């Protein structure tokens, strides 16, 4: 196996919140294509098998970047536990979209220092992060390829009665089934959905993407049904989009947190992602 270097550091977003960034790469003279990973809801860059996936991407020759959205609820001191619940409650989709833009701009500017090729940038997003990655790809011509894993197709996933109670209380509580924590979502998240309908329209965004898109979804996904992947495909330009449905696996392709080892479906997904980016992030 090639030696992989890892850098961890923090950058600031537009309002001074920290974005915790990991970069994994081989120290070689070859300019490396860049792949940036976006985690999902109740997730973080160090969740389960995500570090394993980024390590394999680096071993495959990519400059592999993962990061925590600024208000995802974990800290650099406790990167695998939700200790900043007030931050989690204040998070919004627009904030995450802005955070991703800051990360892309930062990596684009710093790429020459790491012998990474900022003309070859791809995004990976998981679950809610898949929706964010789709929105961003549609808005930034620097992104040359996108892999959406178990992605949502719509951020407005709340019924009328739930929204009514949310507005009355000023917050919504969701349980983290792994930790048992009750985690609040402030009314600002719902207001973000209602005020930014066009900006946060995932199906509209994927229809506007002219770069290659790989949609991957487990057919036994109970958190985000695989029919959302089909909806994304139907909304997209099929000349540029492909759909991989993985049998007998769920939302995280059999991987759990804390990480207890990889799975056959997860390895198959990683292998498919590598082939996709090697093809679509090749030198022009």
Primary descriptors:
9 helices; 284 residues; two-stranded antiparallel ribbon; Rossmann fold; eight-stranded mixed beta sheet
How does this structure look, described?
This protein has one domain: Rossmann fold (3-Layer(aba) Sandwich). It is built from 9 helices and 10 strands. It has helices at 50-59, 85-90, 93-110, 128-139, 160-169, 187-195, 202-208, 227-235, 264-280, and strands spanning 5-12, 18-25, 32-38, 63-67, 116-126, 143-149, 171-175, 182-186, 213-218, 241-246. The strands form 2 sheets. An 8-stranded mixed β-sheet has the order 1-2-4-3-5-6-9-10, sandwiched between helices. It has a two-stranded antiparallel sheet with strand order 7-8. Helix 3 (93-110) packs across helix 4 (128-139) and helix 7 (202-208) packs across helix 8 (227-235). The mean pLDDT is 97.
Shape: globular
Number of strands: 10
What structural class should be given to the helix and strand makeup?
alpha/beta
- For this structure, the CATH topology is Rossmann fold
Oligomeric category: single chain
Number of helices: 9
Low-confidence stretches: none
Short description:
Helix content is 35%, strand content 24%.
What is the topology?
Blueprint: E1 5-12, E2 18-25, E3 32-38, H1 50-59, E4 63-67, H2 85-90, H3 93-110, E5 116-126, H4 128-139, E6 143-149, H5 160-169, E7 171-175, E8 182-186, H6 187-195, H7 202-208, E9 213-218, H8 227-235, E10 241-246, H9 264-280
Parallel strand pairs: 3-4, 3-5, 5-6, 6-9, 9-10
Antiparallel strand pairs: 1-2, 2-4, 7-8
């Amino acid at each position: 196996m090639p030696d992989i270097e890892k850098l961890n550091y923090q950058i600031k977003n537009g309002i001074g919140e920290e974005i915790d960034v990991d970069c994994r790469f081989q120290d070689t003279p070859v300019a490396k294509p860049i792949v940036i990973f976006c985690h999902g809801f109740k997730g973080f860059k160090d969740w389960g098998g995500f570090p394993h996936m980024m390590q394999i991407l680096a071993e495959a020759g990519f400059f592999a970047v993962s990061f925590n959205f600024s208000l995802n609820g974990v800290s650099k001191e406790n990167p695998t536990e939700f200790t900043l619940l007030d931050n989690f409650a204040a998070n919004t989709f627009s904030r995450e979209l802005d955070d991703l833009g800051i990360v892309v701009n930062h990596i684009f500017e710093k790429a020459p220092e790491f012998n990474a090729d900022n003309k070859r940038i791809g995004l990976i997003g998981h679950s809610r992060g898949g929706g964010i990655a789709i929105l961003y790809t549609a808005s930034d011509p620097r992104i040359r390829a996108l892999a959406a894993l178990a992605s949502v197709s719509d951020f407005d996933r709340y019924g009328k009665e739930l929204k009514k109670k949310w507005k009355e209380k000023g917050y919504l509580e969701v349980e983290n089934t792994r930790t048992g924590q009750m985690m609040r979502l402030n009314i600002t998240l719902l207001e973000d959905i209602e005020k930014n309908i066009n900006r946060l329209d995932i199906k509209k965004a994927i229809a506007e993407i002219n770069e290659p898109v790989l949609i991957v979804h487990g057919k036994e996904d109970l958190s985000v049904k695989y029919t959302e992947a089909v909806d994304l495909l139907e909304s997209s330009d099929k000349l540029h989009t492909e759909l991989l449905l993985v049998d007998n696996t769920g939302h995280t392709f059999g991987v759990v947190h804390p990480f207890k080892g990889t799975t056959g479906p997860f390895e198959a997904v990683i292998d498919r992602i590598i082939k996709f980016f090697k093809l679509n992030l090749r030198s022009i």
